[in-house]
Design a protein that fits this description.
The chain is mostly helical and about 100 residues long. It has one domain. The protein has 3 helices and no strands. α2 packs antiparallel against α3. The longest helix has about 30 residues. The two termini are about 35 Å apart. The mean pLDDT is about 80.
């Protein structure tokens, strides 16, 4: 089953089951299709509606990840570690080789 079929299938079952990666991949495919200029108006509207749902999913997943990171960034007293700008302290993620 491709990502488009998955989104259609999940439409009735709840989009919470699709992963961020699958939603983002499908968004890229939709963008490529719409940029070709060969998609009919009706198909463009369907793709736009699908993209809107996928953007909502991606945004939700990113917000959830941010909240989880904030929880993990709390200091031992249970307070969120804040910088001088009163924003949560973050660290650059480095992939070890």
């Amino acid at each position: 089953m491709n990502t488009s079929d998955l989104v259609t299938t999940l439409d009735n079952q709840g989009l919470d089951l699709i992963s961020f990666e699958n939603a983002f991949e499908r968004l890229e495919i939709i963008l490529e299709q719409m940029n070709t200029g060969t998609v009919s108006l009706d198909d463009s509207l369907k793709l736009y509606e699908e993209a809107d749902k996928l953007i909502t999913i991606c945004s939700k997943r990113l917000n959830e990840a941010e909240r989880r990171i904030e929880v993990l960034s709390k200091n031992r007293n249970g307070d969120l570690s804040l910088g001088v700008d009163t924003q949560p302290i973050s660290q650059e993620y480095k992939v070890s080789s």
